[in-house]
Amino acid sequence: MGDLPRVESRSRYPVLHPMVSSPPPGDFSPLTNGPDAPDAPDAPRAPSTPSASRAHVPDPRAWYEERIQGAAVAEEGLEGRLRRLATLRLLAFVGTAAPLLALETSPRGWWPALFAVAGLLLVAFVILVVRHRGIRQERDRMRIRRQVAEEGPARMDRSWEALPLVELDPAPPNHPSAGDLDVLGRASMAHLLGTPRTLPGLGALRSVLLDPHGGGRSEVDQTARRADRRLAMDALSRHPELLESVQVAARAVRRKGDRAALEAFRAWAREPGWKDAASRGRWLLAARFLTAVNLVLFTGWFAGWPPFWIGGAALSLLLWSRVRVEAHARFDAVEGAEASLGQWAGLLEVAAGLPADAPLLTRLREGASSPVEGARALASLRRISDWAQIRRSSLVYFPVAFLTAWDIHPLVPMERWRDRYGDQVDRWLEAVGELELLVALALLRFDHPTWCLPAELPLPGSGSRPGRIPDAGPGSVPAMAGPALRASDLRHPLLPPDRAVGNDVELPAPGSLLLVTGSNMSGKSTLLRAIGANQLLLLAGGPVAAARFEAPPLVPWSSMRIRDSLVDGVSLFMAELQRLKRVVDAARGEPVLVLLDEILQGTNTAERRMAARTILTHLMEAKAVGAVSTHDLTLADAPELAAHLAQVHLKEEVKEVDGRRTLSFDHRLRPGPATSKNALLLLELVGLGAEPGGPPVTVAREVDLAPDGPDAQNGPS
Fold it and tell me: HSE on the CB side for 577, CA within 13 Å?
C-alpha cells in the first residue's frame, strides 16, 4: 500500500516579483464589481477586492517558467540521490549475505562476529530501503509539480493536446446548451477547467457546468453561494503556490477511484454500525484472548505438548464464521474508497493551510469540515483498511483466521472509526470537491489577469430596474429599455488570447432580442458562443473573458448545432423545430438566456422567414433575453419585430491586390444590419467557383474550413 502524500503548503522556489498587466484602457476596471466600478442602481453586486489588491500577483507565464526550471533541477538532483542509494542498498544486501555464507567455512569462534556484521548490514539495508522509498516519493511529487507547471502555459495558449482531458459523465439528452457551447469534450469548458482529479472535485465541476442551478437551493442562496465562491476564487488566485499544492496533492495518488465504490463508502459511513459498542468490545476481547492462547498452544506443540491448539483453533473458527460475511461486506465498502483516501487526506491537509482571505476559505479551513482532523482520520482509516486486506492472500489469510479469528481485529477499530467520524464524511468530501473547483476557477483568474469578475444583476422579474417597462398585459411585447446584459471587450474563453477578438456587447431588456447579421465566417456563431460560455463562467462563480461583464444569472438555452436522425426518422427541419420548442417552453417557464444560430435552415426561404418571425414573437412575448444570428437580412423588416430587435453586424473586406482577391475579417461588431455577402467568394476560395480561370481568392486571416475539425466550434462563422 502506498504512503499518504505529504503535501507542502510552502514551496521551495521563490515567488517572482509583480509583473501584472495594467488594466485595459477605457471606462471599465478589470474588476467591475470593485469599489471604483460604475454603479448600476438597484443592481446587487458580488463583493470583490479592488484591482490594486492584485499588484503582488506575479506574471503567470514567467512564474510557470520559473517553476518548471526549479522542479526540473530538483527532480534531476533527486534522481542522482536515488541512483546512489540504489548502489548502497545493493552493497548492503550483498554485505548482509556474505557473512552468512561464510559461516560454513569459518571457525565457530568467528560466528558471533559474523552474525553481528550481518545484523548491522541488514539494519543498514532496511534503513536504505526506507530512505530510497521516501526519496522516490519525493521525486514523484517533484515530477508531478513540473507537469502541473508545464500545463500552465499550455492552458494559457489553449494548446489542448498538452492538457489532460478530464473524464466527466456525458450531458443528459436535450441539455439546454452543452452541445452548442462546448461544455464537455476536447477543447471545451471542462477541458479548460480540467484540473480536478478526485471524484468529489469532478462531480463539483460537472455540476457547475451542466446544472448550475441544481441542488434545490433558492435564488437567494444560489446568488450568495456564487458570491462566496467568487471571493474565494479571487483570493486563491493570489497564491499560485497553494494552487499548485492542491493539484500535486490530488495527483500524488495515481490509482483512480470508482463512483460506485465511493457511494458504497458513503453509505457505510451513514448506516448503523455493526453491533453496539459494548458488544464489539466483548467480541474483540474474545478474539484477542483466543489469539494469545492459540499462539501459546501452537508454539508448545512444537516443543512436544499435546495438540491442545486444535480446540482453541476450533473456537476461533467458530467466532470467525459468525462475523466473516458481514465483516467482508464492510471491508469492501471501505476498501472501495481506498484508492481515494490518500487524495482526500492530502487535500484536506492543504485545506488546513488556506488563507483566511474570504469567508468560504475560512469555512473550508476552520469550519465544520475540520480539515486537520479529517486528514488524520482518513489516514488512520487507510491503515486499518490495509490490515483488513490480508484476506486477499489465501495462503496467509486462512491460517491466520484459523488461529486468531482475524476479521474481528480490524472490524472493531473500523466500526469505532465509523461511530466517531461517519457523520463528517460527507462534509469532508464536499470540502474536497469545493476546494478543487475553486482551484480550477482560480487558475483561470491567475492565468488571465485582465479577465474580470462579473457583476450579477437581478433576474428579470425579480425586482424593478431603471428603464424596464412593466408588463402591459397578456400578448403584449414591451419596447426595448435598458440592457439586460452588458459586456466590454467580450472574448471567447476557449480561443487563444492572441487570436480572440474582443467586442462590446449589450443584450436588450427582456422582450427584445439582439439580432446579429453578417457574412459567412465573419464570427456570428462565435459571438453567440462567447456570450454563452462567459455566462456559464458567471454561473460557476468564476472570472469571465471580458473587461466588464454584467448579467443576471440566466441559464443559457441554445439552438445551434442541429442534426437530423436516421434512427429516429427525424429530418433536420423537424429536429430544429423540436429544439426550438424546448427553448421557447423554457423561456415561458423562467428567465433564461436564449442563443439561436441561423433559425430553421432546413426549409425553403419563404417558409423559413415566416416561421422564424413566429418563433421570435413567441420569445418576445415570453420576455426572453438573448441573441439571434441570421443570414436573412429581411428578418427585422416585419413591423411587429422591428421595434424589438437591436441590430448589429460583422463584416468582411474584399480587396484585389496583384490580381488576387483578398477576403479579410476583423470580427468586430458594428451597429445596424449587414450590408455584404460572401458566399460566392468562398465558393471560389475552395475551388468551386463558376469561373475556374478567374482570379483566385485568398483569406487574409487564417481560418479552418473543416466543418467538423477540432477548432471548428471555436472558429469564426
Answer: 11
Name the CA radius of gyration of the chain, rounded.
33
C-alpha 253 chain-centroid distance:
17
**Read out DSSP for 149-210?**
HHHHHHHHHT-GGGS-----PPPPTT-SSTTTTT-SSTTSHHHHT----SHHHHHHHHHHHH
Cβ count near 137 (within 10 Å): 17
Say which DSSP state 109 is in: G
Q: Rounded to whole angstroms, how far apart are CA atoms 539 and 555?
A: 8
Q: Cell numbers 450579477 correspond to what residue?
A: 456
pLDDT in tens, 529-577: 999 999 999 999 999 999 999 999 999 999 988 775 666 666 777 788 8
Residue 21 — pLDDT band, cuts 50, 70, 90? very low
Task: Provide the 10 A C-beta neighbour count for residue 390.
Answer: 15
Sheet containing strand 455-456, edge to edge, reads 455-456, 548-551, 485-490, 503-507
Per-residue HEC secondary structure of 231-265 comes to: HHHHHHCCCHHHHHHHHHHHHCCCCCCCHHHHHHH
* Cα angle 65, 66, 67; round to 5: 90
- CA gap 235, 357 in Å, rounded: 6
Contact 429, 344 (CB under 8 A): yes
Taking residues 103-108, report their average pLDDT.
82
Inform me whether the pLDDT recorded for 10 exceeds 50.
no
Cβ contacts of 419 within 8 Å, gap of 6 or more: 273, 277
Alpha carbon distance 123, 417 (integer Å) = 35
Task: Calculate the CA 666 to chain-centre distance.
Answer: 33
- Taking the CA of residue 353 as centre, how many other CA atoms within 13 Å lie in the half-sphere pointing to its CB? 15
Tens of pLDDT, residue by residue over 206-234, are 999 999 887 666 778 888 899 999 999 99
pLDDT tens digit sequence for 175-198: 999 999 999 999 999 999 999 998
Partners of 519 in the β-ladder: none
Q: Are 511 and 584 in contact (CB under 8 A)?
A: no
Give whole-number Cα distances, 312 to 85, 292, 295, 298, 325, in Å: 47, 10, 9, 9, 22
Average pLDDT over residues 124-150: 92
Q: Which residue has the cell 430553421?
A: 600
CA–CA distance, 140 with 78 (Å, rounded to integer): 9
CA distance 147 to 165: 14
**Amino acid letter, 57:** V
Q: CA separation (Å) from 645 to 166, 512, 515, 596?
A: 40, 6, 6, 14
Give me the pLDDT at residue 584, please. Answer: 93
Query: How many residues are given for the chain?
Result: 717
CA 280/CA 286 separation, integer angstroms: 10
pLDDT band at 508 (very low <50, low <70, confident <90, very high): very high
pLDDT value at residue 242: 93
462-490 burial, b at 16+ Cβ within 10 Å, e below that, comes to: eeebeebeeeeeeeebbebbebbbbbbbb
Dist. CA 509–CA 37, nearest whole Å: 22
**Which of 336, 554, 568, 352 has its CA nearest to residue 459?**
554
Question: Measured between alpha carbons, how far is 246 from 433 in angstroms, rounded to an integer?
Answer: 11
Q: Which residues contact 315 (CB under 8 A, 6 or more apart)?
A: 290
Residue 342 or 8, more confident? 342
Whether 460 contacts 552, CB under 8 Å: yes
pLDDT in the model for residue 679: 56
Predicted TM-score (pTM) of this structure = 0.79
For residues 42 and 98, the model is more confident at 98
**Residue 452 DSSP symbol:** B
CA distance 523 to 507: 17
